[in-house]
């Protein structure tokens, strides 16, 4: 295994970082050589939960995403693809899609329109390779009684024959991609951070699963893989990216990431695509002509728990009509 | 080297024990092995074998962690009288306190490790090699201060015991700065652990300035309670001199701390219930139940009852001095604080969730077995450390056993 | 003079108010006449006729460019002139019989009928109230006559659904893509299943406390919250 080349786009490394990179690479090489000798060179035998020893060691010594060189990221992507092949029998494609320049994403949701169908929840589960049996659903739709914004009186598990129910309105909640995120501050190992395009992302291969970020989040937006996620092979979304919907292991935290695998390529997030009523509006907050900017300037908007100072980038608005026609 | 012989001689000292000693160690080792087996289940299936959920994402493990950090911090209650106030009677037993601190800190860190979803990635917490989010993350702070405290409480007694082993007096000039550092560090470990909880503005039950003082006050109850019992056991099974004045001092500290602790609880209850807002949902769930779910109500009221009985027994001079009632008070206070600071603090912080959902938590058998195993391991560590230090202090383990020990004899020690 | 009349109006109302509300005998008189309603427009005929040019709609200022998903391919019976070339024109508002399409309009509650939106002598086009012709793919110009505020929202993105990507020129659904113009009220439909619990955990048996609103609460000493029975 050759020495990984430093990424020319990243700032020049200080002395210690170079030593650490060489040290880690050396450990992986030593482990891989030992492993190859032990198991027979090149034999991709299913062991250690379906990975070869080389992949296990490479994964174990893998660095934090923000410190990895281009080569290291590429080997990590290849490892993810191989692991998915072994686990699901499906060839997936894992990329490292960079953020778009001059872009900060924002989301607006029209609660006059949301009917509570939960189409967004289903689309998200399928697009982001969420475990079907696990508790992890990035979006949770709350059924609220009209006349009150009291979340404590909401029903998370509404199951009427038809929606919308008389006298109720619906409030979908997901990660707010806060600009001053308490989860980013809480993480002891910097496994979660805010990207330049405003999305708070998680490095699933660095997260140690301490769940401190989950206690810090005021929106219950972060979810933990209590068990190994189960995805039917026929339903896997093969277009994945590292900081987004690549298959996750058990024991790590995950959350909505505004579908980085889609939005960083100009597509809409899966929830917006799926919503039948057009209640969801997604766009670039830095573009003064965007729909979301119009909504923020012309509609009655509010954010959840704004008094906590988290600066969420998810607004709710209603069908208040503008003054001028 | 003398240092190596220090360790080997101490180890040999550990192998000399009564039947009771070996039975005690054997039982602890057995419980630890059962805990290890239960943990292997957790490693294999994931944390789904526990009772935790997205709604209540910290449970029995972190409850015990918070409680044990308090026990560790309470060692400072022996260090301060011994070294700052020069109480000779306390100085004789300060190594026991430091041994308890080491065992408690190791236990606490093991609980955190048991709670991790990916424990093999714990190396990510090592500075420089991993990527530690210090000083922003309170959990990173906790890792730093707990490991530092462990190092301090290993270094300090080791220095003193090594000096005694070599037959010379430890130099005050050398270890006094470390003592002062350890004093402040002890308070800081528990303050950082309190800040770990109180930093979360998403959790109004914890987001109070009073949490740090509550933690320190309750630590100064549960720590001395345990030390008092341990000292009485040591006095009975070894020839180690444990003065009654030490126990009296600890009992007095415990009394005042428990009174303050109960006052803090009254302050919390008043502030939350006088004008009850949505922020009082957690404390309402804890004391009265919420939406018909009353899982922790019996727990907390029994803890309150235990603490009240304990504070009465301790506040009355005669019952505080009588060994039977003192021990009853210690047991009640220890268990009461364990309930109130453990499950009674960690779990209600999650109920109701920030989105208003009420979802209860019950620890599973796997969690209980793993926790018992970790407690047993801590008890083992403490037993071994205490036995080694007692052996050295009593002069049974010396670098040159033929010579007389050059140091001053301990007050009340058998020659 | 007009303002003096308006100012005098509340005084006239005040004069009819309960005598008990007047200042007690012996007190100094106050100029306060009661709350004044300031009208939003002058309710007087203009002194001189004010002919001005009519305002014409020519799009919204600052609206980003957009394309609308075409509708014609979704219209089963288009082009309508296939049949209506030979059918006689009957401008009497009525319920249709034997039509292969909508017989009666479930929109507007009788305020208008088919030929108010459909062009009578050119069935492949729609029409505005003023008589201008509108293509089926620009049907929003017809809807926007009554629902103008909604049309403004739709033009700028606060209403309706954007398809394709979030950047570049907007491609948006036409009004009729979601709203059936002949029966626009959306019917309730089934929702997806509630969120699952973590594996191995049971649902909570919650008994939520009923949240009583003021008209549901019973005030002490009354019946059913009304003051009528208060002694």
CATH 2nd-level architecture of chain B: Up-down Bundle
Give the averaged pLDDT of chain C, no decimals. 83
CATH homologous superfamily heading of chain B? Formate dehydrogenase/DMSO reductase domain
**What would you call the structural class of chain B?**
mainly alpha
Largest interface: A-B, 53 and 50 residues
Structure description:
The complex is a heterotrimer of chains A (325), B (415) and C (231). Chain A is an alpha+beta fold. Chain A has 2 domains: 15-91, no CATH class; 95-325, Alpha-Beta Plaits (2-Layer Sandwich), CATH 3.30.70. Chain A contains 9 helices and 12 strands. Chain A has helices spanning 15-39, 53-60, 70-88, 119-127, 182-186, 212-216, 260-263, 270-274, 291-298, and strands spanning 93-95, 105-110, 140-145, 168-173, 192-194, 200-202, 223-224, 239-241, 253-254, 280-284, 301-302, 314-317. Chain A has a 4-stranded mixed β-sheet with strand order 10-2-12-11, with helices on one face. In chain A, helix 1 (15-39) packs antiparallel against helix 2. Chain A is globular and about 65 Å long. Chain A starts with 14 loop residues before the first helix and ends in an 8-residue tail after the last strand. Chain B has 415 residues and is an all-alpha fold. Chain B contains 16 helices and no strands. The longest helix of chain B is centred in the middle third of the chain and has 30 residues, at 244-273. Chain C is mainly alpha-helical. Chain C has a domain at 70-88 and 103-178. In chain C, 18% of the residues lie in helices and 5% in strands. Chain C contains 6 helices and 5 strands; from the N terminus they run H-E-H-H-E-E-H-H-E-E-H. In chain C, the strands form 2 sheets. Chain C has a 3-stranded mixed β-sheet with strand order 1-5-4, with no helix packed on it. Chain C has a two-stranded antiparallel ribbon with strand order 2-3. The interface between A and B is large, with 53 and 50 residues.
